[in-house]
User: Which sequence fits this backbone?
């Protein structure tokens, strides 16, 4: 096979295309007057034995010739015929062939017939039986008649059938006696003539050379044809001329082009989950492959992720507002459009656009009337004026459907320099819009879920968190990019008793609104457990049990009993009175510690299993932090990259944090800014805490014996200390709190009693003993003589509670420092 330049190609021939290889030329009496090399290969007879003799010698039986005569008469009445006959090979064997016979007309007025033949046995390679192939062959010829031209050795046309002129636009009287370049000058004609010269000289045929029709016919769009060129020989094997067999492949070419465009749509439309971007991708693909001008307008609710209306027709006397999501034109700047990309678009009632939105069906006008008196011109006069200025003359409006609703519409138009749209164009446009609608619906639903997840996540994350007297804090949270959705990262800063602070960072496995909701559940659980003043390892153990129970509760009963929830977490407690930090982690990346000189370390900390697995117990580690140290807690989105090892990310983070003189907010921003330029595939969370320390003048502590008279001494010690701090207005309330707590320690505790006052943002009073009993707040009746101590403490303090230590328990109470409290 050859292309338009005569170069051999490897495309497979169809049965129809193969018939051009074996061709004979017969006169009106059925005498062979021209013979091809392919015909010799088919039947075994050389030209010297066939040319000048009746074609009857090739038929295997007389009845076949009789049938052939009948076909001959049928051909005279219908112009051509296609049928099956049995031929006799030169070696005596018989075989069936499919014949295609076309009548030719020449300047001498004498009839000629071009006969092409294909062996049925050869056609079996296409996987069909003989009858099926014959039916296909016959149908193809009837639906797409063959054009035949016979040229002499000077390549002047001597015979041609009527079909050829219908195909390429050159009438027989314009063609006969002329070369092709004389009848229709052009590059394609020159290519065909060059291939004809080659066929005359070498005898090698040129099969399936594609070319365009030389002249438009009957107002139709440009046609695409293929030609097979074979040499005709006389009895001595000398070249008589060239037989050119052509057939129309416009439909198959357009089908291939349609597949190419649809293939382009699969790669160019829906590359993101952004509805506006998807609309622009549809418009960009349509121009210029399908149209000269295209717009994509979406209902305003679609970019917001809201549910569209079932029909976007007039609602309550008004048409909904649309937004231009896509705009493309062959003209720079798209001067045909009244609205730019992203701008609102109003759709007037009683115009084609409104009818499409109301009905949900496409509108097709091959010849568009935009005159002032037309329906279009009256409903949209300004737009119609633009279309007239730019000679826009053919229109397709296709609704964008998704799950039974109309999201918007796509408009395709052509200018006066293009042919009008055809039905095939409308079908292609509808397929393109259907493809885009799937992407738009996915993007819309994603936008809705992402907005809900972000709102939930922002609501659940802390606002205005402070580390109190224990630390200055700063944080950054970056949601994942649009391809991966919102994740389940969370962090918190929780004030604890005794001026301590808890720092927590966690990460839920997964993305989307489910991850955000799970994050909220775990964050609430951590706050509740932190309020119990549990050590980090015990808190994570309780949290692990909770995650396991939630996973079991949320599991589908019809599915295997597997955990549906998993998370990592790092929990740290810093005490400014001792400058000690105790932490434990559950499968989370280790924290970074930056000393006051800027040296960054990642302390050795038992990894622990992620929450929800219920595996190994968790371990706490305590280490000393000099005042001014920075503790960095983060999620894996800050250090992990698919293209790099995690150690690279940790080294990058360490280098970013090694800036001791930088303000905490600036340090936080700088660390996050070191992320790769591309959008993160996971949420990024960073929590920084610069430690403070309480000085000796802020802490007063005493050890007291567990004797009944010690309560008075404790009150006196507390009163004296408050006066030294200038907190005389708290003496009365503090005396009562100390008295009740010390009395309870004497009555229910064991060992030596500890009393400690801490002045920070609050005044904290702590009483410790070696007992493990849990004090319980009671609401005594008026007749009870006891049980009012803790009730009094709760009324006098801002809050109170109990925490346990290795050597017993601590009961504490906090008061506001302001006199008005």
Assistant:
């Amino acid at each position: 096979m050859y292309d338009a330049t005569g170069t051999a190609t490897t495309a497979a021939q169809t049965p129809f295309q193969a018939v051009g290889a074996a061709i004979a030329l017969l006169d009106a009496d059925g005498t062979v007057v021209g013979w091809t090399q392919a015909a010799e290969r088919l039947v075994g007879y050389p030209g010297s034995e066939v040319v000048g003799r009746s074609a009857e010698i090739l038929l295997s039986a007389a009845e076949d010739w009789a049938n052939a005569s009948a076909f001959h008469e049928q051909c005279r009445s219908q112009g051509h015929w296609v049928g099956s006959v049995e031929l006799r090979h030169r070696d005596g064997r018989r075989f069936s062939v499919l014949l295609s016979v076309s009548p030719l007309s020449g300047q001498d007025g004498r009839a000629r017939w071009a006969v092409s033949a294909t062996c049925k046995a050869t056609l079996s390679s296409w996987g069909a039986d003989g009858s099926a192939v014959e039916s296909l062959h016959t149908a193809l010829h009837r639906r797409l008649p063959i054009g035949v031209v016979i040229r002499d050795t000077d390549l002047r046309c001597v015979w041609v059938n009527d079909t050829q002129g219908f195909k390429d636009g050159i009438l027989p009287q314009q063609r006969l006696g002329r070369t092709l370049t004389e009848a229709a000058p052009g590059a394609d004609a020159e290519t065909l003539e060059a291939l004809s010269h080659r066929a005359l000289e070498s005898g090698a045929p040129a099969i399936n050379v594609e070319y365009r029709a030389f002249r438009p016919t009957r107002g139709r769009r440009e046609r695409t044809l293929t030609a097979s060129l074979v040499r005709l020989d006389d009895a001595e094997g000398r070249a008589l001329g060239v037989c050119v067999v052509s057939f129309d492949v416009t439909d198959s070419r357009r089908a291939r082009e349609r597949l190419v465009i649809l293939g382009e749509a699969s790669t160019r439309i829906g590359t993101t989950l952004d509805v506006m971007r998807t609309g622009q991708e549809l418009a960009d693909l349509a121009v210029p492959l399908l149209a000269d001008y295209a717009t994509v307008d979406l209902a305003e609710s679609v970019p917001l992720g809201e549910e569209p209306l079932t029909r976007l027709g007039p609602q309550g006397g008004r048409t909904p507002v649309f937004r231009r999501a896509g705009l493309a034109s062959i003209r720079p700047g798209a001067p045909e459009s009244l609205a730019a990309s992203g701008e609102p678009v109003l759709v007037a009632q009683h115009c084609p656009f409104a009818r499409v939105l109301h009905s949900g069906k496409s509108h097709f006008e091959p010849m568009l009337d935009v005159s002032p008196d037309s329906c279009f011109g009256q409903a949209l006069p300004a737009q119609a004026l633009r279309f007239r200025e730019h000679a826009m003359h053919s229109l397709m409006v296709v609704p964008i459907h998704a799950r039974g609703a109309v999201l918007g519409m796509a408009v395709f138009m052509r200018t006066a320099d293009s042919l009008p749209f055809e039905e095939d164009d409308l079908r292609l446009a509808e397929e393109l819009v259907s493809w885009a609608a799937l992407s738009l619906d996915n993007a819309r639903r994603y936008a809705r879920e992402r907005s809900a997840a972000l709102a939930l996540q922002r609501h659940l994350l802390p606002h205005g968190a402070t580390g109190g007297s224990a630390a200055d804090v700063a944080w950054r949270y970056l949601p994942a990019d649009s391809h991966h959705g919102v994740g389940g990262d969370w962090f918190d800063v929780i004030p604890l008793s005794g001026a301590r602070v808890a720092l927590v960072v966690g990460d839920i496995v997964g993305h989307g609104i489910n991850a955000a909701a799970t994050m909220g559940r775990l964050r609430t659980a951590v706050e509740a457990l932190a309020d119990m003043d549990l050590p980090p390892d015990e808190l994570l153990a309780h949290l692990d049990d909770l995650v396991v129970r939630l996973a079991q509760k949320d599991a589908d009963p019809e599915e295997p009993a597997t955990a549906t929830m998993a998370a990592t977490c790092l929990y740290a407690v810093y005490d400014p009175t001792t400058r000690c930090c105790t932490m434990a982690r559950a499968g989370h990346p280790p924290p970074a510690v930056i000393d006051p000189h800027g040296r960054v370390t990642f302390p050795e900390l038992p990894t622990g299993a992620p929450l929800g697995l219920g595996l190994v117990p968790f371990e706490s580690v305590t280490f000393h932090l000099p005042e001014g140290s920075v503790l960095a807690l983060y999620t894996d989105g800050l250090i992990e990259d698919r293209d790099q090892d995690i150690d690279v990310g940790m080294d990058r983070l360490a280098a970013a944090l090694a800036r001791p003189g930088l303000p905490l907010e600036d340090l936080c921003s700088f660390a996050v800014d070191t992320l790769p330029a591309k959008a993160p595939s996971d949420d990024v969370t960073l929590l920084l805490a610069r430690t403070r320390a309480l000085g000796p003048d802020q802490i007063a502590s005493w050890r007291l014996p567990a004797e009944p008279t010690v309560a008075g001494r404790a009150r006196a010690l507390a009163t004296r200390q408050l006066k030294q701090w200038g907190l005389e207005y708290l003496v009365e309330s503090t005396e009562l709190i100390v008295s009740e707590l010390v009395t309870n320690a004497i009555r229910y505790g064991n060992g030596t009693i500890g009393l400690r006052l801490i002045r920070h943002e609050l005044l904290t009073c702590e009483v410790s003993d070696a007992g493990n009993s849990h004090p319980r707040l009671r609401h005594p009746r008026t007749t009870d003589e006891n049980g009012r101590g803790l009730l009094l403490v709760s009324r006098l303090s801002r809050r109170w509670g109990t925490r346990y230590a290795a050597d017993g328990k601590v009961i504490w109470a906090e008061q506001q420092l302001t006199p008005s409290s």
